[in-house]
Design a protein that fits this description.
The structure holds two protein chains of two kinds.
Chain A (H helix, E strand, L loop, with lengths): L3 H6 L12 H4 L6 H37 L6 H5 L9 H8 L2 H33 L2 H16 L2 H11 L6 H8 L13 H28 L4 H9 L4 H29 L3 H6 L12 H11 L3 H28 L2 H7 L1
Helix pairs in contact in A: 5-15, 6-10, 6-12, 7-10, 8-10, 10-12, 12-15, 14-15
Chain B lengths: L5 H41 L3 H4 L14 H7 L12 H32 L5 H13 L6 H10 L6 H25 L3 H9 L4 H30 L2 H6 L8 H5 L3 E2 L2 E2 L1 H36 L1
Antiparallel strand pairs in B: 1-2
The chains are: A mainly alpha, B mainly alpha.
Chain lengths: 336, 297
Amino acid sequence: MATPTASGLAPAPTELAILPTAASRRRSPPHAWRRSWRRQLLPLLLLLPALGLIGLMTGYPLGRLVATSFQNLGPIQLIGHKVVWNGLANYRTLFTSSNLGTSVLQTVVFVLACVGLTMALGTGVALLLRRVGSLLRVVVSVCMLLAWSMPTSAAAIVWTWLFESEWGVVNYMLTATGLHFANHNWFGSAISAYSIITANIVWGAIPFVALTMYSALTLVPRDLFEAAAVDGASPATTFRQVTLPIVRPIFVLLTVLSIIWDANVFNQVWYLTQGNAQLLNVIPLGVWQYIQAFSSQQYGLGAAVAVIMILLLLAVTGYYIRIMVRTGEVQRGAKA
Amino acid sequence: MRAATPTLMAGTRTSRYRSMTWLWRAVALVFAIVMVFPVYWMVNSAFEPNSQITSLTPSFFPVHLTLHNFVRAVDHTAGTTVVQAYFWDDARNSLIVVTSAVLVTLIFAFLAAAAISRFRLRGASAFLVLILVVQMVPGTAMVIPIFLFLNNLHLTDNYLGLILVYAASTLPFTIWALRGFVRGVPIELEEAAMVDGASRFGAFWRILFPLVLPGLISTGIFAFITSWNDFLMANILMQQNYHQTLPVWLFSFTTNTGTDYGGLMAGCTIMALPVVIFFLLVQRRLVSGLTAGAVKG
């Protein structure tokens, strides 16, 4: 077998015509078109299954979602396979009802609370992990991994058990400390239910943020901290001037990912309210469109809510994708 | 730190530093307990007899170990409700659907990753941007059109429908991650094999595939976990009890007469177990991969 370097430096042009080497890139006019076409054919064939599946299960449904949002689609039309266009009627219904505004506001507040708490606590834990010994660090990491690995559905169900009014352990412990929490119903008011949903989401999200931030922090060279200490910088200044600039890219990435995930939560809301999300009064968009479509069987109206949700998220994701493209992550991957 | 004499300053600093260290240790320990407690409580309740579960003073350690909750969860003859009858059906459905979806995803993603990183393909950047965009589409918003689409094709209550949904939803991330693994294998190895007479596909199969196998396994496990945990799509697409998957099955423990918390915690434990095991195997790779990519970028 030839050594990799030898073959890489001087490939035989005939055998390796499809490889992106200098020899194959040189254009020879008579066959240039045919050769470049052949060179594109094989990779295109390799790409085709993935493209096809994404087109079929994401592209087409996305188009269909937008189309459905302009239709009157109820159980009758669904069974009869009828298409009834009703123009902007669904959107008009949404914008004239007071529900949309409050639901959008509720979603924004809810997502901001979840993301803010997750990022603040996650970063705090990452910094904390640097200050404790290796044994305690392992213990904390293992506990976080166990929490992180819990399926959201199972975790949410366990939380309903923790906060159960009669036999729940949380009420027991609070009562034991002398507070009046015996038979307290945590899901009795919307604010209280939302707090528990938020706590559950943050609990599940902290491990990823904390461990990722921790491993980002280990990338900060130690001599920078020493230099800052020699210069007499306070811990806060060191964090602002040394740590933050280095971990900022990962912090931004985690924040954007968290926004997308938290705007998209369904399981936690659904399981924690035991399928009765109406008790929340104001329901986040992602759950609302689901109820609109499948409980009320108004698919057109639900689709319109989903379209509004996608447009709202587009602002955030567009920013993220622009950053990815601008920093060359995409181009670098393509060139490889 | 400012203009004090070094020795004096060092003395006060270390004692303050020491008490702070103890404070940080205490905070870390409390945090660890808060994080792990729900998981512990799930397992603790799962092994407790029902009399203990519905007692006003919960026991923090499983004193009277029993498997009765597990028996009730999986065996419908011992069950208190009819809906719980479907554990074995639903477990089989989950396994078939999720495993098939993971295989489809891995094959498609491997081919796509090879196409992107091994060929000078026009439009590869556009494809990667497309992948990013697709990954950002909120899953909850896709339930309505996917239900309508599969309903038209008579693919609801059908394995194939759910397999396609899961394969498509995990594909973007899998391609994105695998691309990194393929990039890590020097192309010269394949070139050498081809100089020695291997075909293009022979080189992929004999050289590239074994070298990215660890990457395939870890991305495959992530795809598995994502699909295994899905409730939303399975709940809508699989309407018969015996067609459902385990996350939907978990919902069946609450009936009009109340919730069987012992059985429910046993069910949660059963469902979480494969995920926890798989997860512990691969999470390190995820975190290091993500930070490497993001900090470099």
